Amino acid sequence: MGQRFLSLWFRHLLTDDAARRRPALLMAAFVLAAPDHGRMVVTAANYLAQAQGIQTGMVVADARVLLPGLEVLDDQPERAGQLLRAMALWCIRFTPVAAIDLPDGLILDISGCAQLWDGEAPYLAQIVATLRDNGPTVRSKGYDVRGAIADTIGAAWAVARYGRTTPIIEPGATIDALLPLPVPALRLDPGVTNRLARLGLYKVRHIAGMARQALRSRFGNDLLLRLDQAFGREAEVIEPVIPVVPYIERLPCLEPIVTATGISIALARLLEALCTRLQQDGKGLRAAVFKGYRLDGKVVQAGIGTHRATHHVPHLLKLFEDKIAMLEPDLGIDLFTLEAPTVDDVEARQPSIWSGTTGLQDPRLAELVDRVANRFGKGCIHRYLPAEHFWPERAFVPANSFDDLALTAWALTRPRPIHILATPESIEVAAPIPDYPPMHFRHQGQLRKVVRADGPERIEPEWWIDGARHRDYYAVEDESGVRYWIFRSGPYTGLPSSPWFLHGFFA
Predict the structure, then answer these.
(1) Which of 160, 301, 393, 451 is paired with 281 by a 20 to 30 Å CA distance?
(2) Which DSSP symbol is given to 168?
(3) Can you give the pLDDT at residue 135?
């Protein structure tokens, strides 16, 4: 199946928006204006003002001569981009690829999408009718919009703005549809268009068959590029408002879904489809986002994450179970999507003769950790791997998943506390002579008397760390039975200000 594109043209985008916000303007002639070299110049005019001869680029003073009662509103230069982005996000319910086409249009890649609406004609009709009658929100008053579908972006753009027959150009009929159109349909610079008009070249057919070298020497490469893009000889790339995720499934709804049961059924169907694709590709998801597009234009969503790549549908449904209950359908959801922004390879495992897999390879352990982490937050469970560093706070790194492997072995020659502080905390220590453990120390205002101690254990820093000093560690126990891991930084000086630190707690 070849690519198909839909171009939407909002003929009075800014004035339609102003009328939506101020319904009293629907039956009034008005313009938007901005200062230009000390004069107010019309930047947009609604259809009633245009019917009175007022056009874009006219000075406001001249426009008021033609229409004394003309209402003038201040133009907002950034408003067009904001409106088109909101429109593009709303169009996600019809296609995952929607891009802004400034100053007054959208480009949608609808390849393979129209079949969900029984063909391109009803697909286009629903989009245009919804934008005209209801718009992207239930409060909208509608937009004056035209749309066209073709094999190329350039052809769809041209037919939407200059076509006079059918808005749907059948596959393979692009050239025949473009030839009768005027030259501006090629999206050329106005200066090039004017030069072509002075030579009597008004239609696309007048230049389509001319020698390319002659066109290049007279009008530059831009004319040839636009011709090639419109005819499909040169690929054209658009930038979607939402980057396309390789693994995504969509489920449009014939009727808006308003119940939790309906949402659960939609999620189950999407998970089945997505996990089937992942399994076929030897992949498993590490993160998934379930989205619902509501009738009021808002998007509700729920996300999950896993510690090991998986395509096990029942497990993923359990992870979503608590989250989808918080999704508010409001007036209804008419499109559901499920995307997997992060995926990993899944190794095919040979079924074992003996059951009872244990350790990190047990899939039940990974599923348990996923359920706990998604319910209570990612920070509640940690797994660490050894790292080749001497200082304890740098001797381990967090693992991203159960499949991460250690590159070195844990140091087991000396005992280490079960809880190591990320940053050692300063303490006040009283020690009798060098290499003797402390008699007592003060931490956070509380005095701890040492009754048992072991040490010292000297840990040197890596040689490439400038200015670092060795550490002498002691394992000490206070009167209440709490065991600490403390150290003196650098050599013993005998001064009360010798730097001592608390670094961890034993079980």
Answers:
(1) 301
(2) B
(3) 47
